[in-house]
């Protein structure tokens, strides 16, 4: 993939405007005619240079595990907006408030694009979940246990759909089950579906018919927080490795069948 192909996902109104808003303070501070009017100076102060250096360090550390350029840019813009807010407030409270209103308007009217494409998901209804997992142990399952009323579940839905479309194989399948309708399934897999639960959604990876990984991870006293982004799911479930292993197993199975046909 070329550099320009990697940048193509950023050529959307959300990302372009997000970048412009993030660096708006520094654009205004370096534009002749504007900077003298708004700030009485076109030079960055020493402490602003120090803040920029600190910002660069934070962005590099925060982004060291990001999987794609969209997430990298979104994270960088988030921290740059925080710095810009401080800089605007440093000059005027009204500047700071106007900048915050601009950021809020951006979130409302140009939200981050979500996946709206095809999916490859099996929707389970009660006991058929356990039956399907145990029916063919050669199939690996990644299953989301969700409830319809949870905002986190709703937010994660397009992410899971995108993953299912990109990674689904005959022996790597994606499934979902609404555990508010089937509480016995939630109980079987130790998932708290109460209104204050931090286990919704729960994603479990089943390999050879058994649970091998889940997020979030419940401990004795609390549930460890997990941010259900595409990159986090790919990393925590090692989905790229699982995909390649399943693809290799599928290829080997096809070769064996072809060999059997030749021998017959």
Notes on the protein architecture:
This protein is α/β, with parallel strands linked by helices and 264 residues long. The protein folds into 2 domains: 3-109, no CATH class; 121-260, Glutaredoxin, CATH 3.40.30. It has helices at residues 3-7, 13-22, 24-29, 35-39, 46-62, 69-91, 93-109, 128-135, 151-167, 183-188, 230-236, 239-263; strands spanning 121-123, 140-146, 172-178, 202-207, 210-215. Strands 1-3-2-4-5 form a 5-stranded mixed beta sheet, with helices on both faces. The chain is elongated.
Give a topology summary.
Blueprint: H1 3-7, H2 13-22, H3 24-29, H4 35-39, H5 46-62, H6 69-91, H7 93-109, E1 121-123, H8 128-135, E2 140-146, H9 151-167, E3 172-178, H10 183-188, E4 202-207, E5 210-215, H11 230-236, H12 239-263
In brief:
The protein has 12 helices and 5 strands. It has 264 residues and is of the alpha/beta class.
Question: What distinguishing features does this structure have?
Answer:
Glutaredoxin, Thioredoxin_domain, 264 residues, Thioredoxin-related transmembrane protein 2-B, alpha/beta, transmembrane
Percent of sequence in beta strands? 5-15%
Largest sheet: spatial strand order: 1-3-2-4-5
- According to CATH, the homologous superfamily of the largest domain is Glutaredoxin
CATH architecture of the largest domain: 3-Layer(aba) Sandwich
At CATH level 3, the topology of the largest domain is Glutaredoxin
Helix content: 55-70%
Averaged pLDDT:
89
Strand-and-helix sequence, N→C?
HHHHHHHEHEHEHEEHH
Taking pLDDT < 50 over at least 5 consecutive residues as the criterion, the unreliable ranges are none
The major beta sheet can be summarized as: 5 strands, mixed
The total number of structural domains is 2
Count helical runs: 12
Strands, total number: 5
């Amino acid at each position: 993939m070329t550099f320009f192909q990697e940048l193509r996902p950023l050529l959307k109104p959300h990302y372009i405007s997000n970048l412009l808003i993030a660096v708006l303070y520094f654009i205004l501070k370096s534009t002749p005619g504007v900077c003298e009017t708004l700030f009485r100076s076109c030079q960055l102060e020493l402490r602003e240079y120090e803040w920029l250096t600190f910002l660069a360090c934070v962005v590099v550390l925060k982004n060291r595990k990001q999987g794609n350029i969209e997430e990298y840019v979104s994270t960088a813009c988030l921290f740059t907006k925080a710095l810009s807010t401080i800089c605007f407030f440093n000059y005027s409270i009204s500047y700071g408030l106007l900048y915050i209103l601009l950021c809020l308007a951006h979130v409302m009217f140009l939200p981050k694009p979500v996946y709206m494409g095809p999916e490859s998901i099996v929707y389970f209804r009660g006991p058929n979940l356990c039956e399907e997992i145990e029916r063919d142990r050669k199939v690996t399952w990644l299953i989301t246990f969700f409830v319809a009323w949870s905002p986190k579940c709703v937010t994660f839905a397009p992410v899971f759909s995108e993953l299912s479309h990109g990674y689904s194989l005959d022996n790597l399948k994606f499934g979902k089950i609404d555990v508010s309708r089937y509480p016995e399934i939630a109980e079987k897999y130790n998932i708290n579906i109460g209104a204050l639960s931090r286990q919704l959604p729960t994603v479990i990876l089943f390999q050879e018919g058994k649970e091998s990984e889940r997020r979030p991870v419940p401990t004795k006293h609390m549930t460890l927080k997990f941010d259900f982004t595409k990159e986090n799911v790919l990393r925590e479930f090692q989905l790229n490795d699982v995909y390649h292993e399943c693809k290799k197993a599928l290829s080997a199975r096809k070769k064996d069948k072809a060999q059997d046909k030749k021998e017959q």
